Amino acid sequence: MATTADDSRVGATTPTFMMRWPTGAKLLVILSIALLPLAIIAVFATLRITQIADTEARAGLRVAAAESSRAIAIELIGDMTALRAAVDALEADPGDTPSCARVQGVFAQQAFNGARFAVFGPKGRLLCGSSFPGALEVARTARDAAVAAQILPQRGLLLGVVGRSGQVTAAAYFPTDFLAELSRPSGFTPAYAATLIHGANELVLQSLARENAFERRENNLTDLGIGDLKLAMEVRTAPITSPLVIALLLPLVMWAAAAGIAWFVVDRLLIRPMRQLRARVAAFTPGEETDSQVIRALPAQELRELGDTFRALTRTVAIHEAGLAEGLVRQTKLTREVHHRVKNNLQVISSLINFHARGAKSPEASQAYASIQRRVDALAVVHRNHYAEMEENRGLSLRPMLGELASNIRATAAEGTQLRIQLDIDPYLVTQDVAVAVAFLATELIELAVTCDPAAQLRVSVKEAATPDRATLRVSSRALIESPELRDGLATRFGRVIEGLSRQLRAPLHHDPLAGAYEISIAVLGRD
User: Fold this and answer.
1) N or C, which end of the chain has less CB nearby within 10 Å?
2) Are 136 and 120 in contact, with CB atoms under 8 Å apart?
3) Torsion region of 399: left, alpha or beta (phi above 0 gives left; psi -120 to 50 gives alpha)
4) What span, in angstroms and rounded, lies between the C-alpha atoms of 126 and 115?
5) For every one of its 528 residues, what pLDDT tens digit does the chain have, with 9 covering 90 and above?
6) How big is the CA angle at 407 (ends 403 and 413), to the nearest 5 degrees?
């Protein structure tokens, strides 16, 4: 039979993680994986179209930003170059009127748009142009050949230069409208934003209001090459509109819908009817027959055939169950009869031993008969308790068994023996083999104590051990303290028996000679 069982497992594979999934879940996953690439391709195609539009907007912004920054840089660098030339000339000759006239000619057209300039001599005396707020301050911040810049928020830009000796300085003012018109790129139709940046200060040349919260923009930052000024420009890119959102989500919605519809159809036509059929199989009881109308209502022909096969099996199982139930009744009666006869036989043996003990000629013979009778009683106690628990098969309870055993030992003790036994037993359950060994071991240890001291007082306990499946049996008495009588009893009668019982319990028996205690670990099935 073992060989057949092994052969039936040949070729069997260990279930994988996905094999343990329900069929509906596996179907949904497979369909989702199969259709997901198509949805991803459609989404990427839509995103690619959006990226192309963004690339075109980015390229147009770069061209416009280059044109605007070039126009501003040319204008500012040209004006400041003319202003520096005038500063150098006036520094060499403070009365150089033609130099001042040339600067005025350069700024003539800008002056129409609000631009102004001023040249200051030593001690801030105005040499040329017209003074304006902040002119002297920005001029004095210039160093060497560098141009100093200062942004006046919402007003304009200040630029300053200083001569070689630092005696003559000059400043120029360019209003916001002039710079905005100057930065306007030609032929650039989209709306844009332009901002002049100097450090943490900004001058807005052209503003671009946000139309919605999902608006996207492209940015470009260009260095003008004068006074650490930078020009930042922004344009709107393709907005996130409802058609774009629908185009992005529609492939995913179609992917989910296709997988969901396929799963729904298979679940309705196949998986759910199979679950119903399985539930009927699981709820099947012997003697019950499945309703044929329920089987005919199944949507799939294959499932109806499977249901008909199950109906045929239920009839066969009902016939076999009836035969098995009848055989089980006979077997139960036979087992009870056997236990009853064994119990009666043990009682007869105990009675015969008691009968012969009464006719013994000497006290030694009476004690020998009593010793034998106690061991037979120990076996009978285990058998009676096992027979009482046989119907539930939970195991044999140690507490009532050891209590009855102690009562029998006290009842069969010799005259003049003042034996006392105290029990402290936790409600543990054990197998019959363990119970027999425990009963004999307790009997041997109690009789060993009585042999050493007829007035022995013993304590028998069963308590929890270190592991849940073990308990500790402990028999302690002052009579079991190391003594010549104890050594003689172990050497002549009890030693080999106790050692054999400990081997049967598969645990070492520990003896504490100072405390007079024997202790052993026993296997338990649980608590009662």
Assistant:
1) N
2) yes
3) alpha
4) 17
5) 444 444 444 444 555 665 667 666 777 777 777 777 777 777 777 777 777 767 777 777 788 888 888 888 888 888 888 888 888 888 877 777 788 888 888 888 777 888 888 888 887 788 888 888 888 888 888 876 678 888 888 888 899 888 877 788 889 999 988 888 888 888 776 788 889 998 888 888 888 887 776 677 788 888 888 888 898 988 877 666 566 667 667 777 787 877 777 777 777 777 777 777 777 777 766 666 666 666 666 666 666 677 777 777 777 777 787 778 788 888 877 777 777 667 666 665 666 566 556 656 677 776 776 777 777 777 677 766 666 555 455 778 889 888 988 888 888 777 767 889 999 999 999 887 888 888 888 988 988 898 898 888 999 999 999 888 999 999 999 999 999 989 888 888 788 888 888 988 889 999 999 999 999 999 998 887
6) 145
Distance CA 479, CA 448 (A): 8
Q: What's the distance, CA 371 to chain centroid?
A: 65
Q: What pTM, to 2 d.p., does this model score?
A: 0.43
Cα 276 to chain center, whole Å? 33
DSSP characters over 186-222: TT--S-EEEEEEETTEEEEEE-----STT--EEEEEE
Q: In 10 A of CB 103, how many CB atoms?
A: 25
CA distance 382 to 392: 16
Q: What does DSSP say about strands 396-397 and 428-430: parallel, antiparallel, or unpaired? A: antiparallel
Please tell me the distance from the alpha carbon of residue 171 to that of residue 152, in angstroms, as a whole number: 14
Give the integer Cα–Cα distance in Å for 350 and 88.
140
* Residues 103/129, Cβ–Cβ less than 8 Å: yes
Give the β-pairing of 156-162 and 148-152. Answer: antiparallel
Chain centroid offset of residue 160 CA: 66
The CA distance from 14 to 357, in Å, is 67
Q: Quote the Cα angle for 518-523-528, to 5°.
A: 105
Residues in Cβ contact with 369 at an 8 Å cutoff, skipping those fewer than 6 apart = 353, 354, 356, 357, 360
DSSP bridge pairs for 1? none
The size of the chain, in residues, is 528
Terminal-residue alpha carbon distance, the chain: 36
- Cβ-proximal residues to 361 (8 Å cutoff; 6+ apart), any chain: none
Beta bridge partners of 235: 192, 218
Which of helix, strand or coil describes residue 147? coil
For the chain, give me the number of helices (H) and strands (E)? 15, 17
Question: What are the Cα distances from residue 223, in Å, to 171, 376, 513, 523?
Answer: 21, 111, 100, 88
